[in-house]
Amino acid sequence: MTALAEQFEHGADVGLRGRGTTPGEAFAGAAGALTSLWASDPASIRPRVKETISCEAEDVERLLVAFLDELIFLFATRRLLLAGLEVEIEAPPAGPARLVAWGRGERYDPARHESTVEPKGATFTALRVARESGGWVAQCVVDV
Fold first, then answer.
1. Which pTM was predicted?
2. Bridge partners of 28?
3. Of 14, 46, 47, 112, which is most buried with the most CB atoms under 10 A?
């Protein structure tokens, strides 16, 4: 199974959900759901620039927030859209959880990428990273 991304309605906010066979795939799916707020067709993102993201947090839910914050920062500061992310997560029983992600992308082009919402900063709530039906889910709600 590869990463699956979806958005869901949550009042005035937007829910993001990623599913995969590993936590990394689930995180990649959640990142894809976030990216589709800026580019309604993430498959249209051309792989022109390679980018690496790394972050750490005290647990995997906060790691999801740190990761999505990094994506928002890249978009807000460099107008960079990333697609096809590969995500590796290390979550030891003690100590911080760490993430490294690699992706390719391009600068946002309003002529090609239809933006439905532009979170330049966001508050994430309803955090959930868990095993679910043979795989993993990474989910949150974005207050945009």
1. 0.91
2. none
3. 14
